[in-house]
Protein backbone atom coordinates (compact mmCIF):
# COMPACT_ATOMS: atom_id res chain seq x y z
CA UNK A 1 0.00 0.00 0.00
CA UNK A 2 2.79 2.40 0.95
CA UNK A 3 4.68 1.55 -2.23
CA UNK A 4 1.58 2.20 -4.33
CA UNK A 5 1.02 5.58 -2.70
CA UNK A 6 4.69 6.48 -3.10
CA UNK A 7 4.57 5.45 -6.76
CA UNK A 8 1.44 7.53 -7.39
CA UNK A 9 3.01 10.52 -5.64
CA UNK A 10 6.19 10.14 -7.68
CA UNK A 11 4.16 9.96 -10.88
CA UNK A 12 2.20 13.08 -9.95
CA UNK A 13 5.39 14.94 -9.06
CA UNK A 14 6.99 13.96 -12.36
CA UNK A 15 3.91 15.14 -14.25
CA UNK A 16 3.85 18.50 -12.44
CA UNK A 17 7.52 19.14 -13.19
CA UNK A 18 7.63 17.65 -16.67
CA UNK A 19 10.40 19.27 -18.72
CA UNK A 20 8.32 18.76 -21.86
CA UNK A 21 5.71 21.10 -20.39
CA UNK A 22 7.87 23.75 -18.71
CA UNK A 23 10.86 24.03 -21.04
CA UNK A 24 11.51 24.60 -24.75
CA UNK A 25 12.68 21.65 -26.78
CA UNK A 26 16.10 20.20 -25.84
CA UNK A 27 16.21 22.10 -22.53
CA UNK A 28 16.17 20.30 -19.17
CA UNK A 29 16.08 21.35 -15.52
CA UNK A 30 19.69 20.25 -15.22
CA UNK A 31 20.69 22.87 -17.80
CA UNK A 32 19.46 25.60 -15.44
CA UNK A 33 21.31 24.32 -12.39
CA UNK A 34 24.43 26.23 -13.39
CA UNK A 35 25.37 29.39 -11.51
CA UNK A 36 24.95 31.76 -14.46
CA UNK A 37 25.67 35.29 -13.22
CA UNK A 38 24.42 37.19 -10.17
CA UNK A 39 21.80 34.98 -8.47
CA UNK A 40 22.07 32.22 -11.08
CA UNK A 41 18.89 31.10 -12.81
CA UNK A 42 15.40 31.17 -11.24
CA UNK A 43 14.75 28.05 -9.19
CA UNK A 44 11.50 26.78 -7.73
CA UNK A 45 13.15 26.57 -4.29
CA UNK A 46 13.67 30.34 -4.32
CA UNK A 47 9.92 30.68 -3.77
CA UNK A 48 10.35 29.32 -0.23
CA UNK A 49 12.09 32.54 0.80
CA UNK A 50 8.84 34.40 0.12
CA UNK A 51 7.05 33.10 3.22
CA UNK A 52 9.27 34.61 5.94
CA UNK A 53 9.47 37.77 3.85
CA UNK A 54 5.67 37.90 3.59
CA UNK A 55 5.43 37.60 7.37
CA UNK A 56 7.88 40.51 7.62
CA UNK A 57 5.81 42.58 5.17
CA UNK A 58 2.71 41.88 7.24
CA UNK A 59 4.50 43.02 10.40
CA UNK A 60 5.66 46.20 8.67
CA UNK A 61 2.08 46.82 7.58
CA UNK A 62 0.82 46.61 11.18
CA UNK A 63 3.45 49.10 12.34
CA UNK A 64 2.75 51.38 9.37
CA UNK A 65 -1.00 51.43 9.97
CA UNK A 66 -0.60 52.12 13.69
CA UNK A 67 2.16 54.74 13.67
CA UNK A 68 1.71 56.42 10.27
CA UNK A 69 -1.67 55.71 8.65
CA UNK A 70 -3.81 56.14 11.77
CA UNK A 71 -2.32 59.54 12.74
CA UNK A 72 -2.81 60.69 9.13
CA UNK A 73 -6.45 59.57 9.25
CA UNK A 74 -7.06 61.44 12.49
CA UNK A 75 -5.34 64.51 11.05
CA UNK A 76 -7.75 64.67 8.09
CA UNK A 77 -10.75 64.37 10.41
CA UNK A 78 -11.62 60.68 10.32
CA UNK A 79 -13.00 59.73 13.71
CA UNK A 80 -11.50 56.89 15.75
CA UNK A 81 -14.87 55.38 16.51
CA UNK A 82 -17.14 52.76 15.07
CA UNK A 83 -20.69 53.24 13.78
CA UNK A 84 -23.57 54.08 16.09
CA UNK A 85 -24.57 51.08 18.21
CA UNK A 86 -28.34 50.43 18.21
CA UNK A 87 -29.96 49.66 21.57
CA UNK A 88 -29.99 45.91 22.37
CA UNK A 89 -33.20 44.17 21.41
CA UNK A 90 -33.43 40.36 21.41
CA UNK A 91 -36.44 40.18 19.05
CA UNK A 92 -35.00 42.49 16.39
CA UNK A 93 -31.58 40.84 16.70
CA UNK A 94 -33.13 37.43 16.08
CA UNK A 95 -34.93 38.73 12.99
CA UNK A 96 -31.74 40.41 11.75
CA UNK A 97 -29.59 37.28 12.13
CA UNK A 98 -32.04 34.51 11.27
CA UNK A 99 -34.56 36.00 8.84
CA UNK A 100 -33.65 39.22 7.04
CA UNK A 101 -31.52 42.34 7.34
CA UNK A 102 -33.97 44.27 5.16
CA UNK A 103 -37.49 43.69 6.53
CA UNK A 104 -40.37 44.49 4.21
CA UNK A 105 -43.35 46.69 5.03
CA UNK A 106 -45.48 43.81 6.31
CA UNK A 107 -42.80 42.54 8.68
CA UNK A 108 -42.06 46.07 9.92
CA UNK A 109 -45.72 46.56 10.78
CA UNK A 110 -45.79 43.23 12.63
CA UNK A 111 -42.68 44.11 14.63
CA UNK A 112 -44.16 47.53 15.38
CA UNK A 113 -47.23 45.95 16.96
CA UNK A 114 -45.15 43.34 18.81
CA UNK A 115 -42.71 45.84 20.31
CA UNK A 116 -45.02 48.84 20.45
CA UNK A 117 -42.40 50.79 18.49
CA UNK A 118 -42.90 53.24 15.66
CA UNK A 119 -42.11 51.79 12.21
CA UNK A 120 -39.50 54.51 11.55
CA UNK A 121 -37.75 53.62 14.82
CA UNK A 122 -37.53 49.98 13.74
CA UNK A 123 -36.20 51.01 10.32
CA UNK A 124 -33.52 53.11 12.02
CA UNK A 125 -32.59 50.18 14.25
CA UNK A 126 -32.06 47.89 11.24
CA UNK A 127 -30.09 50.59 9.41
CA UNK A 128 -27.76 51.13 12.36
CA UNK A 129 -27.44 47.38 12.86
CA UNK A 130 -26.41 46.92 9.23
CA UNK A 131 -23.87 49.71 9.53
CA UNK A 132 -22.47 48.03 12.62
CA UNK A 133 -21.20 45.14 10.46
CA UNK A 134 -19.40 47.47 8.06
CA UNK A 135 -15.69 48.13 8.58
CA UNK A 136 -15.01 51.56 10.12
CA UNK A 137 -13.78 54.30 7.81
CA UNK A 138 -10.60 54.56 9.87
CA UNK A 139 -9.78 50.90 9.18
CA UNK A 140 -10.47 51.26 5.46
CA UNK A 141 -8.35 54.41 5.30
CA UNK A 142 -5.39 52.68 6.98
CA UNK A 143 -5.63 49.65 4.68
CA UNK A 144 -5.82 51.83 1.56
CA UNK A 145 -2.93 54.00 2.72
CA UNK A 146 -0.77 50.91 3.18
CA UNK A 147 -1.61 49.61 -0.29
CA UNK A 148 -1.13 53.07 -1.81
CA UNK A 149 2.32 53.34 -0.21
CA UNK A 150 3.41 49.89 -1.34
CA UNK A 151 2.07 50.24 -4.89
CA UNK A 152 3.69 53.64 -5.30
CA UNK A 153 7.04 52.44 -3.93
CA UNK A 154 7.09 49.22 -5.96
CA UNK A 155 6.08 51.12 -9.11
CA UNK A 156 8.91 53.63 -8.61
CA UNK A 157 11.34 50.78 -7.97
CA UNK A 158 10.09 48.96 -11.06
CA UNK A 159 10.51 52.02 -13.29
CA UNK A 160 13.98 52.70 -11.88
CA UNK A 161 15.02 49.06 -12.39
CA UNK A 162 13.53 48.70 -15.87
CA UNK A 163 14.95 52.02 -17.04
CA UNK A 164 18.42 50.48 -17.04
CA UNK A 165 17.23 47.09 -18.36
CA UNK A 166 17.72 46.42 -22.09
CA UNK A 167 14.37 44.63 -22.48
CA UNK A 168 12.51 47.78 -21.40
CA UNK A 169 13.69 49.49 -24.58
CA UNK A 170 13.82 46.43 -26.84
CA UNK A 171 11.30 43.74 -25.92
CA UNK A 172 13.09 41.20 -28.12
CA UNK A 173 15.67 41.09 -25.33
CA UNK A 174 13.05 39.26 -23.25
CA UNK A 175 13.70 36.19 -25.42
CA UNK A 176 17.35 36.57 -26.35
CA UNK A 177 19.17 33.38 -25.17
CA UNK A 178 15.99 32.21 -23.40
CA UNK A 179 15.80 30.34 -21.03
CA UNK A 180 19.50 30.88 -20.24
CA UNK A 181 18.95 34.35 -18.80
CA UNK A 182 20.80 35.04 -15.52
CA UNK A 183 18.81 36.34 -12.58
CA UNK A 184 20.22 39.67 -11.38
CA UNK A 185 19.81 40.87 -7.80
CA UNK A 186 17.51 43.75 -8.83
CA UNK A 187 15.22 41.45 -10.79
CA UNK A 188 15.16 38.91 -7.96
CA UNK A 189 14.20 41.54 -5.35
CA UNK A 190 11.50 42.97 -7.62
CA UNK A 191 9.84 39.60 -8.16
CA UNK A 192 10.18 38.36 -4.60
CA UNK A 193 8.82 41.61 -3.09
CA UNK A 194 5.76 41.56 -5.36
CA UNK A 195 5.12 37.92 -4.51
CA UNK A 196 5.67 38.47 -0.78
CA UNK A 197 3.22 41.38 -0.80
CA UNK A 198 0.44 39.28 -2.30
CA UNK A 199 1.15 36.47 0.15
CA UNK A 200 0.90 39.03 2.97
CA UNK A 201 -2.50 40.10 1.61
CA UNK A 202 -3.52 36.47 1.64
CA UNK A 203 -2.53 36.21 5.33
CA UNK A 204 -4.12 39.49 6.34
CA UNK A 205 -7.53 38.51 4.92
CA UNK A 206 -8.00 36.22 7.91
CA UNK A 207 -7.19 38.92 10.46
CA UNK A 208 -8.80 41.94 8.79
CA UNK A 209 -12.47 42.79 9.18
CA UNK A 210 -14.45 40.32 7.07
CA UNK A 211 -16.04 41.88 4.01
CA UNK A 212 -18.59 40.68 1.49
CA UNK A 213 -15.92 40.11 -1.16
CA UNK A 214 -13.76 37.89 1.07
CA UNK A 215 -13.97 34.83 -1.18
CA UNK A 216 -13.62 36.92 -4.34
CA UNK A 217 -10.44 38.58 -3.12
CA UNK A 218 -9.08 35.27 -1.82
CA UNK A 219 -9.39 33.81 -5.32
CA UNK A 220 -7.88 37.00 -6.78
CA UNK A 221 -4.81 36.84 -4.53
CA UNK A 222 -4.41 33.13 -5.21
CA UNK A 223 -4.58 33.67 -8.99
CA UNK A 224 -2.09 36.54 -8.85
CA UNK A 225 0.33 34.48 -6.76
CA UNK A 226 -0.04 31.61 -9.22
CA UNK A 227 0.76 33.78 -12.24
CA UNK A 228 3.80 35.41 -10.66
CA UNK A 229 5.10 32.04 -9.45
CA UNK A 230 4.49 30.43 -12.84
CA UNK A 231 6.44 33.08 -14.73
CA UNK A 232 9.30 32.90 -12.22
CA UNK A 233 9.71 29.12 -12.41
CA UNK A 234 9.49 29.29 -16.20
CA UNK A 235 12.13 32.07 -16.24
CA UNK A 236 9.84 34.45 -18.09
CA UNK A 237 10.81 37.03 -15.51
CA UNK A 238 11.87 39.71 -17.97
CA UNK A 239 8.47 40.03 -19.59
CA UNK A 240 6.96 39.40 -16.14
CA UNK A 241 8.55 42.59 -14.83
CA UNK A 242 6.99 44.54 -17.69
CA UNK A 243 3.54 43.13 -16.89
CA UNK A 244 3.84 43.88 -13.16
CA UNK A 245 5.09 47.42 -13.67
CA UNK A 246 2.36 48.13 -16.22
CA UNK A 247 -0.37 47.08 -13.78
CA UNK A 248 1.20 48.93 -10.84
CA UNK A 249 1.00 52.16 -12.86
CA UNK A 250 -2.72 52.55 -12.14
CA UNK A 251 -3.07 50.67 -8.85
CA UNK A 252 -1.71 53.41 -6.61
CA UNK A 253 -3.95 56.00 -8.30
CA UNK A 254 -7.07 54.05 -7.38
CA UNK A 255 -5.90 53.73 -3.77
CA UNK A 256 -5.24 57.49 -3.73
CA UNK A 257 -8.80 58.12 -4.94
CA UNK A 258 -10.15 55.90 -2.16
CA UNK A 259 -8.10 57.79 0.43
CA UNK A 260 -9.55 61.09 -0.79
CA UNK A 261 -13.03 59.57 -0.72
CA UNK A 262 -12.66 58.40 2.90
CA UNK A 263 -11.32 61.84 3.89
CA UNK A 264 -14.30 63.46 2.09
CA UNK A 265 -12.11 65.47 -0.28
CA UNK A 266 -14.63 64.97 -3.05
CA UNK A 267 -13.09 67.21 -5.70
CA UNK A 268 -9.67 65.59 -5.21
CA UNK A 269 -11.31 62.17 -5.28
CA UNK A 270 -13.03 62.97 -8.57
CA UNK A 271 -9.80 64.26 -10.10
CA UNK A 272 -7.80 61.22 -9.02
CA UNK A 273 -10.44 58.88 -10.36
CA UNK A 274 -10.38 60.62 -13.74
CA UNK A 275 -6.57 60.31 -13.83
CA UNK A 276 -6.82 56.65 -12.79
CA UNK A 277 -9.35 55.98 -15.57
CA UNK A 278 -7.11 57.63 -18.18
CA UNK A 279 -4.00 55.75 -17.05
CA UNK A 280 -5.94 52.49 -16.89
CA UNK A 281 -7.25 52.90 -20.45
CA UNK A 282 -3.85 53.84 -21.86
CA UNK A 283 -1.93 51.05 -20.13
CA UNK A 284 -4.47 48.23 -20.43
CA UNK A 285 -5.92 48.97 -23.89
CA UNK A 286 -2.90 50.58 -25.54
CA UNK A 287 0.46 49.61 -24.08
CA UNK A 288 -0.51 46.12 -22.91
CA UNK A 289 -1.71 44.67 -26.26
CA UNK A 290 0.72 46.52 -28.53
CA UNK A 291 3.78 46.11 -26.30
CA UNK A 292 3.32 43.10 -24.01
CA UNK A 293 1.18 40.81 -26.16
CA UNK A 294 3.17 41.70 -29.25
CA UNK A 295 6.36 40.38 -27.69
CA UNK A 296 4.86 37.34 -25.92
CA UNK A 297 2.92 36.18 -28.99
CA UNK A 298 4.94 37.19 -32.04
CA UNK A 299 8.51 38.02 -31.06
CA UNK A 300 8.77 34.99 -28.76
CA UNK A 301 7.27 32.73 -31.46
CA UNK A 302 9.92 33.94 -33.88
CA UNK A 303 12.85 33.59 -31.46
CA UNK A 304 12.07 30.53 -29.30
CA UNK A 305 8.98 28.94 -30.82
CA UNK A 306 5.92 27.64 -28.96
CA UNK A 307 5.87 24.87 -26.35
CA UNK A 308 3.20 23.77 -23.81
CA UNK A 309 3.84 26.29 -21.03
CA UNK A 310 4.24 29.01 -23.68
CA UNK A 311 0.66 28.35 -24.80
CA UNK A 312 -0.63 28.46 -21.23
CA UNK A 313 1.22 31.67 -20.41
CA UNK A 314 -0.04 33.45 -23.50
CA UNK A 315 -3.53 32.08 -22.98
CA UNK A 316 -3.64 33.66 -19.52
CA UNK A 317 -2.34 36.96 -20.90
CA UNK A 318 -5.03 36.95 -23.60
CA UNK A 319 -7.74 36.25 -21.04
CA UNK A 320 -6.37 39.16 -19.05
CA UNK A 321 -6.68 41.41 -22.11
CA UNK A 322 -10.33 40.43 -22.53
CA UNK A 323 -10.89 41.41 -18.91
CA UNK A 324 -9.12 44.73 -19.52
CA UNK A 325 -11.63 45.48 -22.28
CA UNK A 326 -14.57 44.61 -20.00
CA UNK A 327 -13.24 46.72 -17.11
CA UNK A 328 -12.52 49.66 -19.41
CA UNK A 329 -16.03 49.54 -20.84
CA UNK A 330 -17.53 49.46 -17.34
CA UNK A 331 -15.36 52.30 -16.10
CA UNK A 332 -16.22 54.45 -19.12
CA UNK A 333 -19.92 53.64 -18.80
CA UNK A 334 -19.99 54.44 -15.09
CA UNK A 335 -17.98 57.64 -15.53
CA UNK A 336 -20.35 58.81 -18.27
CA UNK A 337 -23.46 58.13 -16.18
CA UNK A 338 -21.87 59.75 -13.14
CA UNK A 339 -21.03 62.85 -15.17
CA UNK A 340 -24.61 63.10 -16.44
CA UNK A 341 -25.99 62.77 -12.92
CA UNK A 342 -23.38 65.18 -11.62
CA UNK A 343 -24.55 67.90 -13.98
CA UNK A 344 -28.11 67.50 -12.76
CA UNK A 345 -27.32 67.22 -9.06
CA UNK A 346 -24.68 69.93 -8.88
CA UNK A 347 -25.56 72.80 -11.28
CA UNK A 348 -22.61 74.66 -12.69
CA UNK A 349 -20.02 71.98 -12.02
CA UNK A 350 -19.43 68.27 -12.52
CA UNK A 351 -19.12 66.05 -9.49
CA UNK A 352 -19.13 62.29 -10.22
CA UNK A 353 -20.53 60.15 -7.41
CA UNK A 354 -18.24 57.19 -6.78
CA UNK A 355 -20.80 55.26 -4.78
CA UNK A 356 -22.33 54.11 -8.10
CA UNK A 357 -19.20 52.04 -8.76
CA UNK A 358 -20.08 49.41 -6.20
CA UNK A 359 -23.23 48.02 -7.78
CA UNK A 360 -21.71 47.76 -11.26
CA UNK A 361 -18.29 46.23 -10.62
CA UNK A 362 -18.57 43.91 -7.62
CA UNK A 363 -19.81 41.04 -9.78
CA UNK A 364 -16.71 41.22 -11.97
CA UNK A 365 -14.10 41.05 -9.22
CA UNK A 366 -13.88 37.26 -9.30
CA UNK A 367 -12.20 37.47 -12.68
CA UNK A 368 -9.27 39.63 -11.61
CA UNK A 369 -6.10 37.73 -12.53
CA UNK A 370 -3.35 40.23 -12.97
CA UNK A 371 -4.56 43.48 -11.44
CA UNK A 372 -4.81 44.09 -7.75
CA UNK A 373 -7.43 46.77 -7.56
CA UNK A 374 -10.91 46.39 -6.11
CA UNK A 375 -13.37 49.05 -7.24
CA UNK A 376 -16.00 47.84 -4.76
CA UNK A 377 -13.89 49.39 -2.02
CA UNK A 378 -14.72 52.80 -3.46
CA UNK A 379 -18.31 52.58 -2.26
CA UNK A 380 -19.55 55.67 -0.46
CA UNK A 381 -19.13 55.72 3.30
UniProtKB/TrEMBL annotation:
Organism: Hipposideros armiger (Great Himalayan leaf-nosed bat)
Subcellular localization, as worded in the UniProt entry: Endoplasmic reticulum membrane; Nucleus
GO BP annotations, alphabetical order: ceramide biosynthetic process
Lineage: Eukaryota, Metazoa, Chordata, Craniata, Vertebrata
Pathway membership, UniProt: Lipid metabolism; sphingolipid metabolism; Sphingolipid metabolism
Reaction(s) catalysed by this chain's protein: eicosanoyl-CoA + sphinganine = N-eicosanoylsphinganine + CoA + H(+); docosanoyl-CoA + sphinganine = N-docosanoylsphinganine + CoA + H(+); hexacosanoyl-CoA + sphinganine = N-hexacosanoylsphinganine + CoA + H(+); sphinganine + octadecanoyl-CoA = N-(octadecanoyl)-sphinganine + CoA + H(+)
Keyword annotations from UniProtKB, A to Z: DNA-binding, Endoplasmic reticulum, Homeobox, Lipid biosynthesis, Lipid metabolism, Membrane, Nucleus, Transferase, Transmembrane, Transmembrane helix
SMART domains to which the protein is assigned, alphabetical: TLC (SM00724)
Name this polypeptide is given: sphingosine N-acyltransferase
UniProt DNA-binding residue ranges: 94-137
Cross-referenced Pfam families: Homeodomain (PF00046), TRAM_LAG1_CLN8 (PF03798)
Membrane topology: Multi-pass membrane protein
Gene3D superfamilies documented for this protein: Homeodomain-like (1.10.10.60)
EC number(s) given by UniProt: 2.3.1.24
